[in-house]
Design a protein that fits this description.
With about 150 residues, the protein is α+β, with helices and mostly antiparallel strands. The chain contains five helices and six strands; from the N terminus they run H-E-E-H-E-E-H-E-E-H-H. It has one domain. It has helices at about 5-15, 55-65, 90, 105-115, 125-135; strands at about 35, 50-55, 70, 75-80, 90-95, 100-105. It has a two-stranded antiparallel ribbon. Strands 3-4 form a two-stranded antiparallel sheet. Strands 5-6 form a two-stranded antiparallel ribbon. Strand 3 and strand 4 (about 75-80) form a beta hairpin. It is globular, with a radius of gyration of 15 Å. It starts with a helix and ends in a 17-residue tail after the last helix.
Amino acid sequence: MSISKEIRQQVRDRANYLCEYCHSSEDASAARFEIDHIKPRSLGGSDKLDNLALACQRCNGYRYNFTEGLDPNSLISVILFNPRLDSWNDHFIWTSDRLKIKGKTSIGRATCDRLDLNDDKHNDSAIVTARRLWIRGGWHPPLGDGIEVNNGKG
């Protein structure tokens, strides 16, 4: 089954051209974002609009066909963030320097870990470097995203 141009455009418009996981802007990317199946087709997911999300190539690749991840705090497997059911601000917040995403809940932490939203599992942090440049350009973080208050503790 193929996703129509119209449905693809609806997904992009609904997401405001942001990756629905890491909130990177498609406009700031060299590559067009992908249509992600929240419940992967390999696990019986459909091409219906309510099962689709806009995802950058990084997030789509790391998400693969996973629907669960390990919360690093509790070491319990939980479902990953679902942009059709969950609010981004309920589960994530930007660090006070606006460079990294922190999970506020078990779902947020597991999603940060599974999708490696901050390149924590790599020696080079290309996404953090990109975010630093986006901040200079005034494009990051997206309006409406929560930012951690730095109360002098680090």
